[in-house]
Protein backbone atom coordinates (compact mmCIF):
# COMPACT_ATOMS: atom_id res chain seq x y z
CA UNK A 1 0.00 0.00 0.00
CA UNK A 2 2.69 2.46 0.98
CA UNK A 3 4.68 1.55 -2.11
CA UNK A 4 1.66 2.19 -4.29
CA UNK A 5 1.04 5.56 -2.67
CA UNK A 6 4.68 6.55 -3.13
CA UNK A 7 4.59 5.50 -6.78
CA UNK A 8 1.46 7.51 -7.41
CA UNK A 9 2.88 10.58 -5.70
CA UNK A 10 6.08 10.29 -7.76
CA UNK A 11 4.04 10.00 -10.94
CA UNK A 12 2.48 13.36 -10.15
CA UNK A 13 5.85 15.10 -10.51
CA UNK A 14 6.29 14.70 -14.31
CA UNK A 15 2.59 15.49 -14.79
CA UNK A 16 2.95 18.72 -12.82
CA UNK A 17 6.15 19.59 -14.69
CA UNK A 18 4.37 19.11 -18.00
CA UNK A 19 1.44 21.24 -16.92
CA UNK A 20 3.69 24.07 -15.74
CA UNK A 21 5.74 23.97 -18.95
CA UNK A 22 2.60 24.21 -21.09
CA UNK A 23 1.06 27.04 -19.11
CA UNK A 24 4.32 28.92 -18.73
CA UNK A 25 5.01 28.61 -22.43
CA UNK A 26 1.56 29.60 -23.63
CA UNK A 27 1.37 32.53 -21.26
CA UNK A 28 4.73 33.99 -22.22
CA UNK A 29 4.43 33.34 -25.95
CA UNK A 30 1.22 35.36 -26.06
CA UNK A 31 1.77 39.01 -26.98
CA UNK A 32 1.41 41.69 -24.33
CA UNK A 33 3.49 41.93 -21.18
CA UNK A 34 2.74 43.38 -17.78
CA UNK A 35 5.39 46.07 -18.40
CA UNK A 36 3.58 47.15 -21.56
CA UNK A 37 -0.04 46.72 -20.50
CA UNK A 38 -1.30 49.93 -18.99
CA UNK A 39 1.82 51.84 -19.99
CA UNK A 40 1.63 51.82 -23.76
CA UNK A 41 -0.63 54.86 -23.90
CA UNK A 42 1.27 56.75 -21.23
CA UNK A 43 3.56 59.38 -22.81
CA UNK A 44 5.61 59.70 -19.61
CA UNK A 45 6.79 56.11 -19.83
CA UNK A 46 9.82 56.00 -22.12
CA UNK A 47 11.29 52.95 -23.84
CA UNK A 48 14.09 52.96 -21.26
CA UNK A 49 11.57 52.85 -18.43
CA UNK A 50 9.87 49.87 -19.99
CA UNK A 51 13.25 48.14 -20.31
CA UNK A 52 13.99 48.83 -16.64
CA UNK A 53 10.64 47.39 -15.65
CA UNK A 54 11.27 44.34 -17.79
CA UNK A 55 14.64 43.65 -16.23
CA UNK A 56 13.22 44.29 -12.74
CA UNK A 57 10.67 41.54 -13.27
CA UNK A 58 13.15 39.32 -15.12
CA UNK A 59 11.14 39.47 -18.32
CA UNK A 60 14.21 40.36 -20.43
CA UNK A 61 15.80 36.96 -19.87
CA UNK A 62 15.29 34.07 -22.28
CA UNK A 63 12.17 32.05 -21.61
CA UNK A 64 13.92 28.87 -20.47
CA UNK A 65 15.93 30.84 -17.91
CA UNK A 66 12.76 32.48 -16.57
CA UNK A 67 11.17 29.07 -16.29
CA UNK A 68 14.24 27.64 -14.61
CA UNK A 69 14.29 30.41 -11.99
CA UNK A 70 10.57 30.04 -11.43
CA UNK A 71 10.94 26.29 -10.99
CA UNK A 72 13.86 26.69 -8.59
CA UNK A 73 11.75 28.88 -6.35
CA UNK A 74 8.78 26.56 -6.70
CA UNK A 75 10.88 23.75 -5.20
CA UNK A 76 10.97 25.87 -2.03
CA UNK A 77 7.21 26.47 -2.36
CA UNK A 78 7.91 30.09 -3.24
CA UNK A 79 5.72 31.36 -6.06
CA UNK A 80 7.35 34.79 -6.08
CA UNK A 81 5.65 38.12 -5.55
CA UNK A 82 2.57 39.35 -7.30
CA UNK A 83 3.11 41.90 -10.09
CA UNK A 84 0.18 43.94 -8.78
CA UNK A 85 0.79 47.18 -6.93
CA UNK A 86 0.65 45.57 -3.48
CA UNK A 87 3.53 43.25 -4.47
CA UNK A 88 2.61 40.65 -1.84
CA UNK A 89 3.82 37.04 -2.05
CA UNK A 90 1.63 34.94 -4.35
CA UNK A 91 1.48 32.18 -1.75
CA UNK A 92 -0.05 34.56 0.78
CA UNK A 93 -2.64 35.85 -1.66
CA UNK A 94 -3.71 32.34 -2.63
CA UNK A 95 -3.75 31.10 0.95
CA UNK A 96 -6.31 33.68 2.01
CA UNK A 97 -8.57 32.96 -0.99
CA UNK A 98 -8.30 29.18 -1.22
CA UNK A 99 -10.47 28.14 1.77
CA UNK A 100 -13.61 29.81 0.38
CA UNK A 101 -13.23 28.07 -2.98
CA UNK A 102 -12.51 24.72 -1.34
CA UNK A 103 -15.55 25.03 0.91
CA UNK A 104 -17.88 25.91 -1.93
CA UNK A 105 -16.60 23.01 -4.02
CA UNK A 106 -16.74 20.51 -1.17
CA UNK A 107 -20.30 21.55 -0.35
CA UNK A 108 -21.14 21.33 -4.04
CA UNK A 109 -19.73 17.78 -4.16
CA UNK A 110 -21.75 16.79 -1.12
CA UNK A 111 -24.86 18.24 -2.73
CA UNK A 112 -24.14 16.39 -5.98
CA UNK A 113 -23.91 13.05 -4.17
CA UNK A 114 -26.94 13.80 -2.00
CA UNK A 115 -29.18 14.62 -4.95
CA UNK A 116 -27.76 12.59 -7.84
CA UNK A 117 -27.61 9.17 -6.20
CA UNK A 118 -31.29 9.09 -5.17
CA UNK A 119 -32.30 10.41 -8.61
CA UNK A 120 -30.30 7.72 -10.36
CA UNK A 121 -31.59 4.95 -8.09
CA UNK A 122 -35.20 6.08 -8.43
CA UNK A 123 -34.88 6.40 -12.19
CA UNK A 124 -33.50 2.89 -12.51
CA UNK A 125 -35.96 1.36 -10.05
CA UNK A 126 -38.89 2.69 -12.03
CA UNK A 127 -37.31 2.34 -15.46
CA UNK A 128 -39.46 3.73 -18.30
CA UNK A 129 -42.16 4.95 -15.92
CA UNK A 130 -43.40 8.55 -16.06
CA UNK A 131 -41.11 9.33 -13.10
CA UNK A 132 -38.07 8.02 -14.98
CA UNK A 133 -39.07 10.01 -18.06
CA UNK A 134 -39.53 13.20 -16.05
CA UNK A 135 -36.20 12.78 -14.28
CA UNK A 136 -34.46 12.06 -17.59
CA UNK A 137 -35.88 15.23 -19.13
CA UNK A 138 -34.73 17.23 -16.10
CA UNK A 139 -31.28 15.67 -16.34
CA UNK A 140 -31.02 16.59 -20.03
CA UNK A 141 -31.97 20.15 -19.20
CA UNK A 142 -29.43 20.15 -16.39
CA UNK A 143 -26.78 19.12 -18.91
CA UNK A 144 -27.67 21.90 -21.32
CA UNK A 145 -28.31 24.76 -18.93
CA UNK A 146 -25.57 27.39 -18.72
CA UNK A 147 -24.94 27.45 -14.97
CA UNK A 148 -24.32 31.20 -14.89
CA UNK A 149 -27.66 31.81 -16.58
CA UNK A 150 -29.44 29.71 -13.97
CA UNK A 151 -27.49 31.73 -11.43
CA UNK A 152 -28.75 34.98 -12.96
CA UNK A 153 -32.36 33.75 -12.95
CA UNK A 154 -32.07 32.67 -9.31
CA UNK A 155 -30.57 36.05 -8.44
CA UNK A 156 -33.49 37.79 -10.13
CA UNK A 157 -36.24 35.68 -8.59
CA UNK A 158 -34.89 34.83 -5.14
CA UNK A 159 -32.73 37.90 -4.67
CA UNK A 160 -34.10 40.90 -6.49
CA UNK A 161 -37.84 40.21 -6.69
CA UNK A 162 -38.44 38.47 -3.36
CA UNK A 163 -35.36 39.47 -1.41
CA UNK A 164 -35.07 36.03 0.20
CA UNK A 165 -31.38 35.56 -0.46
CA UNK A 166 -28.46 37.98 -0.78
CA UNK A 167 -27.10 38.16 -4.33
CA UNK A 168 -23.44 38.98 -3.81
CA UNK A 169 -20.49 38.65 -1.49
CA UNK A 170 -20.17 36.41 1.55
CA UNK A 171 -21.21 38.60 4.45
CA UNK A 172 -23.99 41.05 5.10
CA UNK A 173 -23.33 44.59 6.24
CA UNK A 174 -22.62 44.57 9.96
CA UNK A 175 -21.35 40.99 10.00
CA UNK A 176 -18.74 41.84 12.60
CA UNK A 177 -21.40 42.79 15.14
CA UNK A 178 -23.40 39.56 14.78
CA UNK A 179 -23.32 36.68 17.21
CA UNK A 180 -21.65 33.42 16.19
CA UNK A 181 -24.84 31.61 15.20
CA UNK A 182 -26.09 34.62 13.30
CA UNK A 183 -22.80 34.79 11.43
CA UNK A 184 -23.03 31.14 10.38
CA UNK A 185 -26.63 31.62 9.26
CA UNK A 186 -25.62 34.69 7.27
CA UNK A 187 -22.75 32.80 5.62
CA UNK A 188 -25.05 29.90 4.75
CA UNK A 189 -27.54 32.24 3.11
CA UNK A 190 -24.77 33.80 1.03
CA UNK A 191 -23.33 30.45 -0.04
CA UNK A 192 -26.60 28.72 -0.87
CA UNK A 193 -26.93 29.93 -4.47
CA UNK A 194 -23.22 29.63 -5.38
CA UNK A 195 -23.09 26.04 -4.10
CA UNK A 196 -26.26 25.12 -5.97
CA UNK A 197 -24.96 26.65 -9.19
CA UNK A 198 -21.59 24.88 -8.85
CA UNK A 199 -23.37 21.58 -8.34
CA UNK A 200 -25.96 21.70 -11.11
CA UNK A 201 -23.86 20.25 -13.94
CA UNK A 202 -22.45 17.55 -11.68
CA UNK A 203 -25.92 16.55 -10.50
CA UNK A 204 -27.06 16.02 -14.08
CA UNK A 205 -23.98 14.02 -15.07
CA UNK A 206 -23.80 11.95 -11.92
CA UNK A 207 -27.47 10.98 -11.80
CA UNK A 208 -27.42 9.80 -15.39
CA UNK A 209 -24.30 7.80 -14.66
CA UNK A 210 -25.88 6.37 -11.54
CA UNK A 211 -28.98 5.31 -13.45
CA UNK A 212 -27.09 3.43 -16.16
CA UNK A 213 -24.75 1.97 -13.52
CA UNK A 214 -27.69 0.58 -11.55
CA UNK A 215 -29.27 -0.85 -14.69
CA UNK A 216 -25.98 -2.54 -15.63
CA UNK A 217 -25.53 -4.11 -12.21
CA UNK A 218 -29.15 -5.29 -12.03
CA UNK A 219 -28.53 -7.28 -15.21
CA UNK A 220 -25.41 -9.02 -13.89
CA UNK A 221 -25.24 -12.69 -12.92
CA UNK A 222 -24.83 -12.33 -9.19
CA UNK A 223 -28.08 -10.37 -8.98
CA UNK A 224 -29.87 -13.13 -10.87
CA UNK A 225 -28.36 -15.61 -8.40
CA UNK A 226 -29.51 -13.53 -5.43
CA UNK A 227 -32.96 -13.37 -6.92
CA UNK A 228 -32.99 -17.13 -7.53
CA UNK A 229 -32.01 -17.69 -3.91
CA UNK A 230 -35.05 -15.75 -2.84
CA UNK A 231 -33.60 -12.45 -1.68
CA UNK A 232 -36.22 -9.71 -1.51
CA UNK A 233 -36.27 -7.15 -4.30
CA UNK A 234 -35.49 -4.48 -1.70
CA UNK A 235 -32.42 -6.27 -0.41
CA UNK A 236 -31.23 -6.89 -3.96
CA UNK A 237 -31.58 -3.28 -4.92
CA UNK A 238 -30.15 -1.59 -1.85
CA UNK A 239 -27.80 -4.15 -0.37
CA UNK A 240 -26.25 -5.65 -3.51
CA UNK A 241 -26.86 -3.48 -6.54
CA UNK A 242 -26.46 -0.03 -5.00
CA UNK A 243 -23.11 -0.81 -3.42
CA UNK A 244 -21.70 -2.01 -6.72
CA UNK A 245 -23.14 0.84 -8.73
CA UNK A 246 -21.57 3.33 -6.30
CA UNK A 247 -18.04 2.21 -7.16
CA UNK A 248 -17.61 4.08 -10.46
CA UNK A 249 -19.17 7.16 -8.85
CA UNK A 250 -16.02 7.54 -6.77
CA UNK A 251 -13.88 7.73 -9.90
CA UNK A 252 -16.30 10.15 -11.49
CA UNK A 253 -16.14 12.37 -8.43
CA UNK A 254 -12.36 12.51 -8.76
CA UNK A 255 -12.64 13.37 -12.45
CA UNK A 256 -15.11 16.18 -11.74
CA UNK A 257 -12.54 18.18 -9.77
CA UNK A 258 -11.09 20.16 -12.73
CA UNK A 259 -14.59 21.12 -13.84
CA UNK A 260 -15.53 22.31 -10.39
CA UNK A 261 -12.34 24.31 -9.96
CA UNK A 262 -12.70 25.84 -13.42
CA UNK A 263 -16.34 26.57 -12.76
CA UNK A 264 -15.50 28.48 -9.61
CA UNK A 265 -14.16 31.29 -11.81
CA UNK A 266 -17.64 31.88 -13.24
CA UNK A 267 -19.54 31.27 -10.01
CA UNK A 268 -17.31 33.53 -7.94
CA UNK A 269 -17.38 36.24 -10.57
CA UNK A 270 -21.18 36.01 -10.74
CA UNK A 271 -21.72 36.23 -6.98
CA UNK A 272 -18.67 38.44 -6.22
CA UNK A 273 -17.23 35.86 -3.86
CA UNK A 274 -13.62 36.56 -2.91
CA UNK A 275 -12.25 33.09 -3.69
CA UNK A 276 -9.45 31.68 -5.80
CA UNK A 277 -11.55 31.76 -8.99
CA UNK A 278 -12.16 35.49 -8.75
CA UNK A 279 -8.50 36.02 -7.85
CA UNK A 280 -7.50 34.07 -10.97
CA UNK A 281 -9.82 36.13 -13.14
CA UNK A 282 -8.36 39.36 -11.78
CA UNK A 283 -4.80 38.05 -12.15
CA UNK A 284 -5.41 37.05 -15.76
CA UNK A 285 -6.92 40.44 -16.55
CA UNK A 286 -3.91 42.23 -15.04
CA UNK A 287 -1.38 39.82 -16.59
CA UNK A 288 -0.02 39.06 -13.19
CA UNK A 289 2.25 36.18 -14.37
CA UNK A 290 3.39 34.88 -10.97
CA UNK A 291 -0.14 34.88 -9.60
CA UNK A 292 -1.60 33.18 -12.71
CA UNK A 293 1.13 30.51 -12.59
CA UNK A 294 0.67 30.06 -8.85
CA UNK A 295 -3.06 29.48 -9.12
CA UNK A 296 -2.64 27.19 -12.12
CA UNK A 297 -0.20 25.04 -10.16
CA UNK A 298 -2.49 24.94 -7.12
CA UNK A 299 -5.42 24.05 -9.39
CA UNK A 300 -3.41 21.25 -11.03
CA UNK A 301 -2.24 19.91 -7.67
CA UNK A 302 -5.84 19.89 -6.40
CA UNK A 303 -6.94 18.03 -9.53
CA UNK A 304 -4.20 15.44 -9.24
CA UNK A 305 -4.88 15.01 -5.52
CA UNK A 306 -8.57 14.58 -6.31
CA UNK A 307 -7.75 11.79 -8.77
CA UNK A 308 -5.38 10.15 -6.31
CA UNK A 309 -7.93 10.28 -3.47
CA UNK A 310 -10.56 8.82 -5.78
CA UNK A 311 -8.25 5.92 -6.71
CA UNK A 312 -7.34 5.31 -3.06
CA UNK A 313 -11.00 5.38 -2.04
CA UNK A 314 -11.78 2.97 -4.84
CA UNK A 315 -9.15 0.55 -3.60
CA UNK A 316 -10.49 0.94 -0.08
CA UNK A 317 -14.12 0.13 -0.88
CA UNK A 318 -13.50 -2.46 -3.59
CA UNK A 319 -11.53 -5.43 -2.19
CA UNK A 320 -11.01 -6.81 -5.70
CA UNK A 321 -8.53 -4.07 -6.57
CA UNK A 322 -6.32 -4.76 -3.55
CA UNK A 323 -3.24 -6.78 -4.20
CA UNK B 1 -30.38 4.30 -45.16
CA UNK B 2 -32.02 6.99 -43.04
CA UNK B 3 -35.74 6.41 -43.22
CA UNK B 4 -38.26 8.10 -40.97
CA UNK B 5 -39.14 4.82 -39.29
CA UNK B 6 -35.63 3.91 -38.23
CA UNK B 7 -34.90 7.27 -36.62
CA UNK B 8 -35.49 7.40 -32.85
CA UNK B 9 -37.40 10.22 -31.10
CA UNK B 10 -34.22 11.65 -29.56
CA UNK B 11 -32.79 12.17 -33.03
CA UNK B 12 -36.03 13.58 -34.36
CA UNK B 13 -36.35 16.15 -31.57
CA UNK B 14 -32.65 16.98 -31.49
CA UNK B 15 -32.43 17.18 -35.26
CA UNK B 16 -35.48 19.40 -35.39
CA UNK B 17 -34.10 21.86 -32.85
CA UNK B 18 -30.70 21.87 -34.52
CA UNK B 19 -32.25 22.51 -37.94
CA UNK B 20 -34.48 25.34 -36.70
CA UNK B 21 -31.65 27.10 -34.87
CA UNK B 22 -29.36 26.72 -37.88
CA UNK B 23 -32.05 28.11 -40.18
CA UNK B 24 -32.68 31.10 -37.90
CA UNK B 25 -28.95 31.81 -37.76
CA UNK B 26 -28.62 31.52 -41.51
CA UNK B 27 -31.58 33.81 -42.21
CA UNK B 28 -30.75 36.31 -39.44
CA UNK B 29 -30.07 39.29 -41.76
CA UNK B 30 -33.45 38.85 -43.45
CA UNK B 31 -35.70 37.99 -40.54
CA UNK B 32 -34.23 40.16 -37.78
CA UNK B 33 -36.69 43.02 -37.18
CA UNK B 34 -33.98 45.57 -36.29
CA UNK B 35 -30.29 46.23 -36.86
CA UNK B 36 -28.56 44.25 -34.06
CA UNK B 37 -26.01 46.99 -33.34
CA UNK B 38 -28.15 50.08 -33.95
CA UNK B 39 -28.25 52.16 -30.78
CA UNK B 40 -31.51 53.92 -30.01
CA UNK B 41 -31.34 55.89 -26.77
CA UNK B 42 -35.05 56.66 -26.79
CA UNK B 43 -35.78 52.93 -26.55
CA UNK B 44 -33.43 52.04 -23.69
CA UNK B 45 -34.34 49.04 -21.49
CA UNK B 46 -37.85 48.61 -22.86
CA UNK B 47 -39.63 45.50 -21.54
CA UNK B 48 -40.92 42.99 -24.11
CA UNK B 49 -43.73 44.46 -26.24
CA UNK B 50 -45.21 44.12 -29.72
CA UNK B 51 -42.47 46.36 -31.12
CA UNK B 52 -39.66 44.56 -29.35
CA UNK B 53 -40.69 40.95 -28.67
CA UNK B 54 -37.81 40.34 -26.30
CA UNK B 55 -37.34 43.93 -25.13
CA UNK B 56 -34.36 46.21 -25.64
CA UNK B 57 -31.02 46.43 -23.86
CA UNK B 58 -29.28 49.26 -22.03
CA UNK B 59 -28.35 50.92 -25.35
CA UNK B 60 -31.79 50.52 -26.85
CA UNK B 61 -30.80 47.65 -29.14
CA UNK B 62 -33.43 45.05 -29.99
CA UNK B 63 -32.75 41.89 -27.97
CA UNK B 64 -34.45 39.52 -30.44
CA UNK B 65 -32.37 40.80 -33.37
CA UNK B 66 -29.20 40.50 -31.31
CA UNK B 67 -30.13 36.94 -30.37
CA UNK B 68 -30.66 35.98 -34.01
CA UNK B 69 -27.24 37.33 -34.94
CA UNK B 70 -25.78 35.80 -31.78
CA UNK B 71 -26.88 32.40 -33.04
CA UNK B 72 -24.48 32.82 -35.97
CA UNK B 73 -21.61 33.50 -33.60
CA UNK B 74 -22.41 30.58 -31.31
CA UNK B 75 -22.80 28.08 -34.13
CA UNK B 76 -19.70 29.33 -35.94
CA UNK B 77 -17.62 28.95 -32.78
CA UNK B 78 -19.14 25.53 -32.11
CA UNK B 79 -18.45 24.15 -35.57
CA UNK B 80 -14.97 25.56 -36.08
CA UNK B 81 -13.82 24.62 -32.57
CA UNK B 82 -15.11 21.08 -32.99
CA UNK B 83 -13.54 20.89 -36.46
CA UNK B 84 -10.16 21.78 -34.98
CA UNK B 85 -10.52 19.37 -32.07
CA UNK B 86 -11.62 16.51 -34.33
CA UNK B 87 -8.68 16.99 -36.69
CA UNK B 88 -6.21 17.02 -33.78
CA UNK B 89 -7.97 14.13 -32.08
CA UNK B 90 -7.94 11.98 -35.20
CA UNK B 91 -4.28 12.77 -35.85
CA UNK B 92 -3.19 11.81 -32.32
CA UNK B 93 -5.56 8.85 -32.16
CA UNK B 94 -4.45 7.42 -35.51
CA UNK B 95 -0.75 7.73 -34.74
CA UNK B 96 -1.20 6.23 -31.26
CA UNK B 97 -3.46 3.41 -32.34
CA UNK B 98 -1.73 2.55 -35.60
CA UNK B 99 1.93 2.90 -34.68
CA UNK B 100 1.47 1.61 -31.13
CA UNK B 101 4.36 0.84 -28.80
CA UNK B 102 6.30 3.69 -27.27
CA UNK B 103 4.70 6.34 -29.47
CA UNK B 104 1.30 5.19 -28.25
CA UNK B 105 2.44 5.35 -24.63
CA UNK B 106 3.83 8.87 -24.98
CA UNK B 107 0.72 10.21 -26.74
CA UNK B 108 -1.64 8.63 -24.25
CA UNK B 109 0.31 9.94 -21.24
CA UNK B 110 0.19 13.39 -22.84
CA UNK B 111 -3.57 13.02 -23.35
CA UNK B 112 -4.03 11.98 -19.72
CA UNK B 113 -2.06 15.02 -18.66
CA UNK B 114 -4.22 17.42 -20.63
CA UNK B 115 -7.34 15.64 -19.32
CA UNK B 116 -6.48 16.21 -15.69
CA UNK B 117 -5.64 19.83 -16.34
CA UNK B 118 -8.12 22.45 -15.23
CA UNK B 119 -8.61 23.44 -18.87
CA UNK B 120 -10.87 26.35 -18.09
CA UNK B 121 -7.94 28.06 -16.33
CA UNK B 122 -5.72 27.53 -19.35
CA UNK B 123 -8.38 28.80 -21.75
CA UNK B 124 -8.97 31.90 -19.64
CA UNK B 125 -5.28 32.66 -19.34
CA UNK B 126 -4.52 32.11 -23.01
CA UNK B 127 -7.47 34.14 -24.26
CA UNK B 128 -6.81 37.02 -21.94
CA UNK B 129 -3.19 37.14 -23.06
CA UNK B 130 -4.03 36.75 -26.76
CA UNK B 131 -6.67 39.49 -26.74
CA UNK B 132 -10.19 38.06 -26.78
CA UNK B 133 -11.72 37.59 -30.23
CA UNK B 134 -13.97 35.10 -31.91
CA UNK B 135 -11.03 33.50 -33.76
CA UNK B 136 -8.98 33.02 -30.63
CA UNK B 137 -11.99 31.49 -28.89
CA UNK B 138 -12.43 28.95 -31.68
CA UNK B 139 -8.75 28.02 -31.70
CA UNK B 140 -8.37 27.73 -27.95
CA UNK B 141 -11.54 25.70 -27.44
CA UNK B 142 -10.43 23.43 -30.29
CA UNK B 143 -6.94 23.03 -28.84
CA UNK B 144 -8.26 22.01 -25.42
CA UNK B 145 -11.05 19.60 -26.31
CA UNK B 146 -9.50 16.99 -28.61
CA UNK B 147 -8.77 14.39 -25.91
CA UNK B 148 -12.05 12.51 -26.14
CA UNK B 149 -11.78 12.05 -29.90
CA UNK B 150 -8.12 11.01 -29.63
CA UNK B 151 -8.91 8.26 -27.09
CA UNK B 152 -11.88 7.07 -29.08
CA UNK B 153 -10.05 6.92 -32.42
CA UNK B 154 -7.13 5.13 -30.78
CA UNK B 155 -9.43 2.52 -29.27
CA UNK B 156 -11.18 1.97 -32.60
CA UNK B 157 -7.89 1.67 -34.46
CA UNK B 158 -6.47 -0.77 -31.92
CA UNK B 159 -9.42 -3.07 -32.50
CA UNK B 160 -9.51 -2.58 -36.28
CA UNK B 161 -5.77 -2.80 -36.89
CA UNK B 162 -5.61 -6.58 -36.73
CA UNK B 163 -8.95 -7.46 -38.27
CA UNK B 164 -8.81 -9.76 -41.28
CA UNK B 165 -9.85 -7.21 -43.87
CA UNK B 166 -7.17 -4.77 -42.76
CA UNK B 167 -4.50 -7.45 -42.65
CA UNK B 168 -5.60 -8.64 -46.08
CA UNK B 169 -5.25 -5.14 -47.50
CA UNK B 170 -1.82 -4.87 -45.88
CA UNK B 171 -0.77 -8.21 -47.36
CA UNK B 172 -1.81 -6.94 -50.77
CA UNK B 173 0.66 -4.09 -50.32
CA UNK B 174 -1.54 -1.19 -49.24
CA UNK B 175 0.42 1.71 -47.78
CA UNK B 176 -0.08 2.75 -44.13
CA UNK B 177 -1.87 5.88 -45.30
CA UNK B 178 -4.25 3.81 -47.37
CA UNK B 179 -4.81 1.31 -44.58
CA UNK B 180 -5.80 4.10 -42.21
CA UNK B 181 -7.79 6.28 -44.56
CA UNK B 182 -9.57 3.60 -46.58
CA UNK B 183 -9.97 0.70 -44.15
CA UNK B 184 -9.74 1.87 -40.55
CA UNK B 185 -11.14 5.41 -40.30
CA UNK B 186 -14.36 4.80 -42.26
CA UNK B 187 -15.24 2.17 -39.67
CA UNK B 188 -14.70 4.64 -36.86
CA UNK B 189 -16.79 7.39 -38.39
CA UNK B 190 -19.89 6.72 -36.25
CA UNK B 191 -18.38 7.31 -32.81
CA UNK B 192 -16.45 10.32 -34.16
CA UNK B 193 -19.70 11.82 -35.43
CA UNK B 194 -21.46 11.30 -32.10
CA UNK B 195 -18.54 12.84 -30.24
CA UNK B 196 -18.49 15.83 -32.64
CA UNK B 197 -22.19 16.56 -32.26
CA UNK B 198 -21.89 16.44 -28.47
CA UNK B 199 -18.73 18.54 -28.85
CA UNK B 200 -20.66 21.34 -30.56
CA UNK B 201 -22.95 21.51 -27.51
CA UNK B 202 -19.95 21.72 -25.21
CA UNK B 203 -18.27 24.41 -27.32
CA UNK B 204 -21.42 26.55 -27.46
CA UNK B 205 -21.70 26.34 -23.68
CA UNK B 206 -18.01 27.15 -23.20
CA UNK B 207 -18.16 30.11 -25.58
CA UNK B 208 -21.14 31.56 -23.76
CA UNK B 209 -19.28 31.26 -20.45
CA UNK B 210 -16.19 32.97 -21.82
CA UNK B 211 -18.19 35.73 -23.47
CA UNK B 212 -20.08 36.20 -20.22
CA UNK B 213 -16.76 36.80 -18.46
CA UNK B 214 -15.90 39.37 -21.15
CA UNK B 215 -13.22 37.11 -22.66
CA UNK B 216 -15.17 35.93 -25.68
CA UNK B 217 -16.92 37.78 -28.44
CA UNK B 218 -16.47 41.49 -27.87
CA UNK B 219 -19.29 44.06 -27.89
CA UNK B 220 -20.84 45.54 -29.96
CA UNK B 221 -20.92 42.18 -31.78
CA UNK B 222 -23.75 40.18 -30.23
CA UNK B 223 -23.20 36.79 -28.65
CA UNK B 224 -25.52 35.01 -26.25
CA UNK B 225 -22.82 35.07 -23.60
CA UNK B 226 -22.02 38.77 -23.75
CA UNK B 227 -25.72 39.63 -23.84
CA UNK B 228 -26.00 37.91 -20.48
CA UNK B 229 -23.26 40.18 -19.16
CA UNK B 230 -25.58 43.09 -19.89
CA UNK B 231 -28.26 41.09 -18.12
CA UNK B 232 -26.11 40.85 -15.02
CA UNK B 233 -25.28 44.57 -15.11
CA UNK B 234 -28.98 45.45 -15.22
CA UNK B 235 -30.18 42.65 -13.00
CA UNK B 236 -32.12 44.94 -10.68
CA UNK B 237 -34.25 46.44 -13.45
CA UNK B 238 -34.36 44.32 -16.62
CA UNK B 239 -35.04 40.60 -16.23
CA UNK B 240 -35.64 40.13 -19.97
CA UNK B 241 -31.97 40.82 -20.73
CA UNK B 242 -31.07 37.72 -18.70
CA UNK B 243 -33.96 35.43 -19.59
CA UNK B 244 -34.00 35.22 -23.39
CA UNK B 245 -30.34 34.81 -24.40
CA UNK B 246 -29.92 32.05 -21.81
CA UNK B 247 -33.00 30.32 -23.11
CA UNK B 248 -31.45 30.38 -26.58
CA UNK B 249 -28.27 28.74 -25.24
CA UNK B 250 -30.27 26.13 -23.34
CA UNK B 251 -32.41 25.16 -26.34
CA UNK B 252 -29.45 25.00 -28.73
CA UNK B 253 -27.27 22.94 -26.41
CA UNK B 254 -30.21 20.68 -25.62
CA UNK B 255 -30.78 20.14 -29.35
CA UNK B 256 -27.19 19.06 -30.01
CA UNK B 257 -27.14 16.84 -26.92
CA UNK B 258 -30.35 15.10 -27.93
CA UNK B 259 -29.13 14.66 -31.49
CA UNK B 260 -25.82 13.24 -30.26
CA UNK B 261 -27.44 10.80 -27.83
CA UNK B 262 -29.97 9.79 -30.48
CA UNK B 263 -27.20 9.18 -33.01
CA UNK B 264 -25.33 7.07 -30.48
CA UNK B 265 -28.37 4.85 -29.90
CA UNK B 266 -29.10 4.70 -33.60
CA UNK B 267 -25.56 3.66 -34.52
CA UNK B 268 -25.36 1.09 -31.75
CA UNK B 269 -27.59 -1.80 -32.81
CA UNK B 270 -27.14 -3.57 -29.48
CA UNK B 271 -29.49 -1.16 -27.73
List keywords for this structure.
heterodimer, A: 323 residues, mainly alpha, MetI-like fold, 2 domains, 12 helices, 0% strand, B: 271 residues
Can you describe this structure?
- The complex is a heterodimer of chains A (323) and B (271).
- By secondary structure, chain A is mainly alpha-helical.
- Chain A is 74% helix and 0% strand.
- Chain A has helices at residues 2-29, 47-57, 63-74, 90-125, 130-144, 147-161, 180-218, 221-228, 233-255, 257-270, 276-285, 289-317.
- Chain A is globular.
- The relative contact order of chain A is 0.13.
- With 271 residues, chain B is mainly α.
- Chain B has one domain (72-267): MetI-like fold.
- In chain B, α1 packs across α3 (63-99), α10 (189-212) packs antiparallel against α12 (240-267) and α11 (224-233) runs antiparallel to α12.
- The two termini of chain B are 18 Å apart.
Q: For the terminal residues of chain B, how far apart are their CA atoms? A: 18 Å
Main pleated sheet of chain A: none
The residue-averaged pLDDT of chain B reads 87
Order of helices and strands of chain A: HHHHHHHHHHHH
What's the quick description here?
The complex is a heterodimer of chains A (323) and B (271). With 323 residues, chain A is mainly alpha-helical.
Secondary structure layout:
The complex is a heterodimer of chains A (323) and B (271).
Chain A: H1 2-29, H2 47-57, H3 63-74, H4 90-125, H5 130-144, H6 147-161, H7 180-218, H8 221-228, H9 233-255, H10 257-270, H11 276-285, H12 289-317
Helix pairs in contact in A: 1-12, 4-5, 4-7, 4-9, 4-12, 5-7, 6-7, 7-9, 7-10, 9-12, 10-11, 11-12
Chain B: H1 9-26, H2 28-31, H3 63-99, H4 101-115, H5 119-130, H6 134-143, H7 147-161, H8 164-171, H9 176-184, H10 189-212, H11 224-233, H12 240-267
Helix pairs in contact in B: 1-3, 1-12, 3-4, 3-6, 3-7, 3-10, 3-12, 5-6, 6-10, 7-10, 8-9, 10-11, 10-12, 11-12
